[in-house]
Amino acid sequence: MPVIETPEVTPERARYYDKIREQGLSPLWMVFNRLITRTPESDCRPYLWRYADLKPLLLEAGGLISAAEAERRVLILENPGMPDSGRITTSLYAGLQLVLPGEVAPAHRHSQSALRFVVDGDGAYTAVDGERTVMRPGDFVITPPWAWHDHGNESGEPMIWMDGLDIPVLQFFDASFAEPYSGDLQPVTRQTGDSLARFGANMLPVDHARGGSVSPIFNYPYARSREALEQLKRQEEWDPCHGLKLCYVNPLNGDAAMPTISAFIQLLPAGFETAPYRSTDATVFTPVEGRGFSTIAGQRFDWAEKDVFVAPSWATVVHHPETESVLFSFSDRTCQEKLGIFREQRNPDDG
Ligand code: GTQ
Question: For 33-83, how does the pLDDT look when each residue is reduced to its tens digit (9 = 90+)?
């Protein structure tokens, strides 16, 4: 149901609309219902990409173009409701990146924030501000805005991770800046593990400033997040909508790890069925462990490890894990919370 009834177009009104258009004017009453909807209306569609389909295609790209020539060898996960947009949701970009053994993705920096979620392979590195971190399956790695970053793979196997960036947010605000580094790799100035030791042990260097908008931890290792879930599951306090769901945070302010993107890890026990839930943050999910299916706006998507699926804003989501499952997910929730527009609803009527 629209908010207003759109007024009839009489010949006299039509002549008037034509006349004012030439002067950069438009009658609100003719477009009100398109601009202001009762509930979110998105071009974003629920969708699932199977890793079994993605991996061979990504490896095929590995034979076609080098990481260096491509700058980043990534297949964008593009929402079928928004073709050619480079978007997985209206506000977020996602892709799968491949770095082959011996390859380097050269250093650059940009105003976009990036997250990496390691899907396949073990032991490649990403370097951020002079520190390299070793990437292992399930690790959640962030690249802050305007930080130099390069990736390299000195392991013996192909390395594949999911990238999540706020590219559409920066497009919306016309705030994109980027530049290449003068060489391929930035110099290494800190030991691997330095940031996790300084900031990731529930302590901070004594005089470190509080309140930075980006987490100084840039790798949240899966071993630790999984251990937290394992410990908590013994308590058997399952949230009806989320199971056991944790948000990755910035230890400087308790906020999401990145200023524009929230990231989560959740455990769902075998056979659990979540209560229907919807929220304004369209969400990208990737199962790390387990298999099952989810219904999104009534449509069923069967998933297994490493698949990627997306739930649009305000679409009702129900998860049905068949085995004990761990889901990683990310959304623009923290961005919406900062703007005061985030909404969520448990057990919506249409669920
Ligand atoms: O690794 O820096 O998927 O700059 C898209 C843009 C990855 C990256 C992407 C990027 C990167």
Answer: 999 999 999 999 999 999 999 999 999 999 999 999 999 999 999 999 999
Whether the model clears a pTM of 0.85, i.e. scores above it, the answer is yes
At 125, list the tokens. Answer: 């590195």
Q: Residue 175 has what DSSP assignment?
A: -
Does residue 146 register a pLDDT over 90?
yes
Q: Is the CB of 67 under 6 A from ligand 1?
A: no
Most distant CA atoms of the chain, gap in Å = 74
CA of 20 to the centre of ligand 1 (A): 44
H helix or E strand, kind and range, residue 74: strand 74-76
Amino acid at site 332: D
Q: Which two tokens stand for residue 131?
A: 């520190």
Nearest CA, atom 10, ligand 1: 72
From 96, 97, 111, mutation site for ligand 1 pocket: most ligand atoms within 8 A of C-beta: 97
Mean pLDDT of the chain: 97
**Given pLDDT bands bounded at 50, 70 and 90, which one contains residue 350?**
low
